[in-house]
Amino acid sequence: MDIFNRVFIVGLAALWVILMAVVILLTWGADTETIDRLADLVSYLNDHTDNPSKLILTLGASALIVLSLTIIIAELTPESGSADVRLVGVTGATAVLPAQAICERVEQEIMALSQIQEAHASVASRDKGLAVALNLTVSPNANVALTTEEACRRAQETIEQTIGVAMVGLPTVQIAFGPPEEPAPPPAPIPEPPPAGEDPPSSQVPTESHE
To answer: Among 69, 87, 137, 165, which residue is least crowded by beta carbons within 10 Å?
Structure first.
């Protein structure tokens, strides 16, 4: 069961506890005015039993639910590159490594591939390890399948073997083609040495004699 399911169940249970507490509070402490207001609400719902009224109430409640869910998802979504990762297999200490350092190490290994022009990695913490996303820019003549497979393999080896953190599933890879690589300019020709016995040509400018 992942963290979202646990948070949902805990939140639902907490909401139920609050509702029951409100019922108990209203049972013992509600005055006549509060009871009249509740009766007005019941009367309003009883008077608006037609479909258009129900539709308006449903749309309003749905908008509030969507807004609440958006806030919950935004709060629960881990920020990429800002979380700290606890390393497993460390005896006698708690080792914590910034996620940004993991991303930089993965990018360094992937950039060693000849067909990769740019590499950007991001990681997100999960219950059983890290989820990895790669954004790669490859050369136009690159074999996309082989390059992607090799980049994923290097990312997995770097995270699991070098760093020591489990990786959840396979990386999510986004591929883009970069500009064609310009060929390197040819080396400058080396001047040939003059033949033996000949003086090299003088670079001095002759001076004119004035009589």
So the answer is: 69
Looking at the fold, whether 92 and 50 belong to one and the same domain comes out as no
- Asked whether residue 183 is domain-assigned, the answer is no
pLDDT 10s digits, 60-102: 778 877 877 777 676 666 554 445 666 655 555 666 778 888 8
Tell me the two tokens of residue 55. 């539709």
7 in the same domain as 90: no
Question: Could you tell me if 161 and 123 are in contact, meaning their C-beta atoms sit under 8 angstroms apart?
Answer: no
How many domains does the chain contain in total? 2
Residue 11 lies in a domain: yes
> Per residue in 121-147, pLDDT tens?
998 877 777 889 999 999 989 899 999
Euclidean distance between the first and the last CA atom of the chain, given in angstroms as a whole number: 107
For 115, the 3-state DSSP assignment is: coil
Nearest one of 146, 122, 135, 145 to 176, comparing CA atoms: 135
pLDDT of residue 200: 56
Are residues 141 and 95 part of one domain? yes
| CA-based nearest residue to 148, from 159, 134, 169, 129 | 134
* SS3 (DSSP) at 116: strand
Range of the domain at 50: 3-76
